[in-house]
Amino acid sequence: MAGEQLQSAPRERLRRHYRPADLRILFIGESPPASGRFFYQKDSGLYRAMREAFQTIDPSISDDSFLSVFQSSGCYLTDLCPSPVDHLDSQSRRAACMGGEPALRKVIGRLQPPMIAALVRSIRGNVERAAARAHWTGPLIDLPYPGRWLRHREVFLETLVPQLRALYWKNHDQHVP
After folding, report:
1. Do residues 119 and 142 make contact, with C-beta atoms less than 8 angstroms apart?
2. Three-state SS at 87
3. Could you tell me if residue 117 is inside a domain?
4. What is the DSSP secondary structure assignment for residue 40, as one 8-state letter?
5. Ramachandran region of residue 112, left (φ > 0), alpha (ψ -120 to 50) or beta?
6. Which candidate, 44, 110, 123, places its Cα nearest to that of 79?
7. Which residues constitute the domain of residue 86?
8. Considering the domain boundaries, does residue 82 fall inside one?
9. What pLDDT, in 10s, does the model give residues 40-61?
10. For 119-162, what is each residue's pLDDT tens digit?
11. Which of 69, 77, 86, 93 could covalently link to 27 via disulfide, CB atoms 3.0 to 4.6 Å apart?
12. Rounded to two decimals, what is the model's pTM?
């Protein structure tokens, strides 16, 4: 556990670096992956899928510019669990997700995002409970994790792109194509 905390400190500093001044959508993932990959390191499947969603709206977004665009559009990603859970058995994973709810409640209560997007359908209940305990009300988008199955990625894009289109163009004062 101490080793995981040492590894998570640089990840959390990197995550905080990209926290937007004007939060519009709080994306909530299950946890950082056990592989050591991380969205804000630009090396995860979630990073590539999210970048693709933004590039659908604006093809000029590059790998170099994506995280800045993500941030300036008011988007931020946090996790239900601070340590990886994708390597755990299902019972331990569910317990870790339940254990992450109090900290997530504090994050939601502090940030009060206008919209929340749960990035793994299996954590929707955890996110709903944490949000309710934070006295948060607003739209909650339910997204499948886009990294493993093609159909999940398609649904991820079909669901997310319209939300991002409105948000992105509003923030960039441009006409929606």
Report:
1. no
2. coil
3. yes
4. G
5. left
6. 123
7. 41-169
8. yes
9. 999 998 999 999 999 999 999 9
10. 998 999 999 999 999 999 999 999 999 977 788 889 999 999 99
11. 77
12. 0.89
For residue 24 the two structure tokens come to 């519009």
Query: What tokens appear for 42 in the block?
Result: 């630009």
Residue 9 — very low, low, confident or very high, per pLDDT cuts 50/70/90? confident
CB environment 115-135: b (16+ within 10 A), e (fewer): bbbbbbeebbebbbebbeebe
d(Cα 11, Cα 145) in Å, to the nearest integer? 20
Residue 79: CB atoms within 10 A of its CB come to 27
Q: Is the pLDDT of residue 4 over 70?
A: no
Q: How many CB atoms lie within 10 A of CB 137?
A: 9
**Calpha distance 79→25 (Å, rounded):** 14
Alpha helices in the chain (DSSP H): 2-17, 45-57, 66-72, 90-111, 124-133, 150-171
**Domain-located, residue 147:** yes
b/e per residue, 5-14, with b = 16+ CB within 10 A?
eeebeebbee
Domain count, the chain: 1
Q: Is residue 175 part of a domain?
A: no
